[in-house]
Design brief:
about 170 residues, two-stranded antiparallel ribbon, about 5% strand, elongated
Amino acid sequence: MADKTNAVVTRTYETGPCQEEDASSGIRTAETLLRLFPVGLCVAALAVMIKDSETNEYGSLSYSNITAFRFLVHANGILAGYSLLSAAFTAVPRPITMSRAWTFFLLDQVLTYLILAAGAVATEVAFLTYKGDVAVTWSEACGTYGRFCKQATTSIIITFLGRNLSRAGGDG
């Protein structure tokens, strides 16, 4: 009689260079797009704030009169520029190295804290323009400069949306 043995058939699946390249290309494309998304929002927030000025019988008020709003404009510009440059750098096929990954990680963190600081300071100043502060005799300004306050608030909201999207993409 023939010796019957149970044979286990195994298959090995090998990934060839073509399959690895496709996966790497897809990840690179996704990361590039996620790094590009915040650019539009940062530029929109920057444009809304730069155009924010109002003149009435009490005088004129512009974003440039308030340091926190100038800081927000600069931070949005820096984040938009970094997002654009990092997207361009990510789009070019290069081998992934630890130093490159750490550099992106550290720059992403620094820019996250920068935009959060700018957004937090601008939010506090916007709150004071709406509510005032009796203890330091700072009266509310939004009763007099309502359109200015609404535009500043819109810019701050867009900034935080851009920050959240940039966080999803790995940026600042």
